[in-house]
Design a protein that fits this description.
It is a single chain. The chain contains 13 helices and no strands. With about 350 residues, it is mostly helical. The chain has one domain. α3 crosses α7 and α4 runs parallel beside α11.
Length: about 350
């Protein structure tokens, strides 16, 4: 699949769009249980299937993108990491904690302002992803300085083995084993996905996607049946392959619908950090209107969590020429200053 004129890789944005839709839908689904509504067996199954691969998908994609132009300059790497990960993490963690602490009667799980003091070692809710990614990027940057492909492969193995040992033994903080395992997924994206995308998916996306889907369903149900960490990892990798294959099957982002879908991928960071306040607001509106049930919460929570942050991000990009790119970066929305899909 070709790139847009702005040199964004369309299938990567499609895959990110698939991932961010699952993230928001997954959180809207879990809000059903947290709101004390009937969390049916169907919703529980959907939750398990979504969570079997949607976040590993983002780590795989992050590794792939990092490998396209592997940064070796420390200053450039530090700037990119600061604006792309650290600032979004700090700004939106503070906003989310502030909202939850100020409105304890509105949120499902209230927290206090003291959580602000702990975000250096204890990320709040979904912000764990940026926290993990920060350390993973540093680890892989250090390894990449050697320029050795053999060391890259060895490091993937080391991360995977260390994660498995820690997780199965229960030794050490869970956040450490999580960072190690997600670091291995990142390495798969960096080392394996380029070959998979270039030599396989570009020529045979349909059969590969079908095979990955069957493999994912099998691995996911084994994981649900407590077959251990091997099944969990298999579901994460095959599910990621399924989503990436599906992205390859989509045509170029030329029509309005496909451009809007690709924009969700382009805006995935902004949606990720902003979606929970919008979804929570949707829940409050539904409750006040007497329309709150499991179905309306999942549907409107997902729509609000996707559409409203995407609109906010689009408006921020439109304002970038007037307010300057620094304002967008300080808002914790990454380093982009214009959309490649929406003029």
């Amino acid at each position: 699949m070709a790139k847009t004129p702005g040199q964004r890789i369309v299938w990567v944005d499609y895959a990110r769009a698939i991932g961010i839709v699952l993230v928001v839908a997954g959180h809207a689904n879990r809000a059903v249980e947290r709101s004390g509504l009937d969390w049916s067996e169907g919703l529980r199954l959907a939750d398990a299937l979504i969570y079997s691969f949607h976040m590993p998908l983002f780590f795989v994609l992050a590794g792939f993108v990092a490998g396209l132009r592997r940064e070796t300059d420390t200053a450039a790497f530090a700037r990119q990491t600061f604006w792309g990960i650290v600032v979004p993490y700090l700004v939106w963690s503070a906003i989310w904690i502030g909202l939850k602490a100020s409105l304890p009667g509105v949120v499902n799980v209230p927290i206090g302002f003291d959580a602000l003091l702990a975000i250096a070692w204890s990320p709040v809710e979904h912000f764990w992803f940026l926290y993990h990614l920060f350390f993973i990027r540093i680890l892989w940057f250090v390894v990449g300085k050697s320029g050795s492909r053999a060391l890259d492969w060895a490091f993937v193995a080391i991360l995977a083995v260390a994660a498995i040992v820690l997780k199965t033994s229960g030794a050490g903080p869970e956040i450490v084993s999580g960072i190690l395992l997600n670091g291995a997924y990142y390495g798969v994206g960096l080392l394996v996905l380029p070959a998979l995308a270039g030599a396989v998916l570009s020529r045979a996306a349909a059969p590969v996607t079908a095979i990955a889907t069957v493999a994912w369903l099998g691995a996911a149900f084994l994981a649900l049946s407590d077959f251990g960490l091997a099944a969990v990892v298999a579901a994460a990798l095959t599910g990621s392959a399924m989503a990436i294959g599906a992205a390859f099957l989509l045509p170029e982002a030329r029509g309005t619908a496909l451009r809007l879908f690709a924009f969700l991928g382009e805006a995935s960071l902004a949606i990720y950090v902003m979606h929970l306040p919008f979804a929570a607001a949707a829940r409050v509106v539904l409750q006040k209107a007497g329309l709150l049930d499991a179905t309306t919460l999942v549907v409107f929570g997902t729509l609000a969590g996707l559409v409203l942050p995407a609109i906010a991000y689009y408006l921020a990009l439109r304002l970038a020429p007037a307010v300057g790119p620094l304002a967008i970066r300080l808002a914790g929305l990454g380093t982009a200053t214009r959309s490649r899909y929406l003029a």
